[in-house]
Amino acid sequence: MSQQNRVLTTQNGAPISDDQNSLSAGERGPLLLQDWHLIEKLAHFNRERIPERIVHAKGTGVYGTFTLTRDMSDYTIADHFNGVGKQTETFVRFSTVGGEMGSADAERDPRGFGLRFYTERGNHDIVGNNTPTFFLRDGIKFPDFIHTQKRNPQTNLKDPHAMWDFWALNPEAMHQVTVLMSDRGIPANYRQMHGYGSHTFSFWNAEGERFWVKFHFKTKQGIANLTAEQADILKGIDPDSSQRDMVAAITDGNFPKWAVKVQIMPEADANTYKLNPFDLTKVWPHADYPLIEIGELELNRLPQNYFAEVEQVALAPSNLVPGVGASPDKMLQARLFAYADAQRYRIGANYNQLPVNCPHATTANHHQRGGAMAGTQCPFSGSQTGGDASRNYGPNSYDGLQDQAQFAEPPLRLDGEANRYSRYDQDDFSQAGDLYRLLPEDEKARLVANIVSTLSVVSEATQNKMVEHFSAADSDYGQRVKEALKG
Ligand code: NDP
Ligand code: HEM
């Protein structure tokens, strides 16, 4: 470290003569307002938090590398999926969903798996979970659902009555409830679990052909879960167990890896396939759309400043790049709005200029110059690389910034009447049953015990409704829950 780097300074860079003793009027006297170094310390301290994320508040972030092992140019023009051997910098934030920033990692809860690729044509985020499905198929229900997962607004306690009441009245949750209550409902850590893009996205290629696509990230560390009893003990001993596990792994050079796979459906198949491929409560069975391995994700570098990089990372399903698009999935459509909106509130209008959010592998050139904490380039320092600093409107005759028509998404045909379609897919149960039937006997027993551990405290009417749903998935499943509730 150079001599200059050892100099303790104030924020304006002035050397500090004494950082341990405040300026007082006499040895025992009161403090002086002119001690602006003290005031800077106290005032900054008061501002060292931003609102925590409304969901997924507790998390762990790591940088890494995605290596493409199969050229995907037949399907997409996206640069990170073109050219075998192509490497792209990534950032992943893992999280739990319902707990606050200080909550325990070993809760029974889905795990967030939010992945960013810093591609040469901008940042591409896949903000998924460790589950291939979700509780809902329409984003209009998301705030209500999350209210049942968070604290009761009156008692400020977690509330199993609200949780089971909501699931009883929303049977489309059955598949995901089964995943959540199964062994995989409490991953042992973030390395030993799969990740899924969960939604259906789209790829398009240079010929303008569109494909529907699902992303899968299969752990190479092997799956490891905790039983409810193990988790209860661990939550007390080490609430930060998953964070600690990841920091230790990366520090030891034991870099975790995931095989990156996709399922691909030609655009026209969506009209005739037996399932609605845009329904987030369902998977595409592998027998119909097999997994195609396309690369490897390795995580290998810890952030330097947790707050700057992990707390302020702004992952968003709307961060898409040419060659990768959205789909008509109603949940995804709601999410395309929600994330950037949350981040403008949580971080500020210019959150994309922060180093972790800035498109590292390219430059951002646009006409949005104002707002809190605006810099002139992303990240903050220097001047905008493209364009003319004096032009903040477009088109203009000076800065040369131009639309890139070659990256236009192919047109998507849309049909139908504008309406609120309440039950566009009646089958809430088959895939929950498929999952139940593939579980080994001991896991079925633990699934039922996990369900009953909280279902047993709610009203009989809600219990009966849930037994009906479990029975609709699989009669043995329903029967066992019913028996266990009597027990
Ligand atoms: P497959 O038999 O081809 O696939 C079953 C899938 O289930 C595999 O991905 C497997 O993952 C996963 N799995 C295995 N054991 C468990 C477990 N104990 N808990 C949770 N998941 C497990 O069947 P289908 O594709 O027809 O799907 C059948 C059911 O499998 C679905 O209803 C769904 O619940 C579940 N599933 C399906 C996925 C898909 O994308 N098709 C993805 C994940 C789950 P692994 O090889 O890693 O053990
Ligand atoms: C975080 C909304 C469904 C995965 C968030 C945040 C919001 C949000 C507002 C906080 C963002 C921030 O402040 O940075 C919604 C809405 C949904 C929805 C409205 C439904 C319509 C889903 C689904 C998944 C998911 C289906 C997974 C498949 C995540 C993850 C994070 C997150 C992983 C944390 C991102 C990070 O690590 O920073 N969600 N969500 N969400 N959501 Fe969702």
From TrEMBL:
It holds the Pfam family Catalase-rel. Residues 1-23 are annotated as: Disordered. Keywords: Heme, Hydrogen peroxide, Iron, Metal-binding, Oxidoreductase, Peroxidase. CDD domains: catalase_clade_3. Belongs to the catalase family. Its cofactor is heme. This is Catalase. Residues 9-402 form the Catalase core domain. Its EC number is 1.11.1.6. It comes from Shewanella schlegeliana. It catalyses: 2 H2O2 = O2 + 2 H2O. The lineage of its organism: Bacteria, Pseudomonadati, Pseudomonadota, Gammaproteobacteria, Alteromonadales. It is an enzyme of class 1 (oxidoreductase). Coiled coil: none annotated.
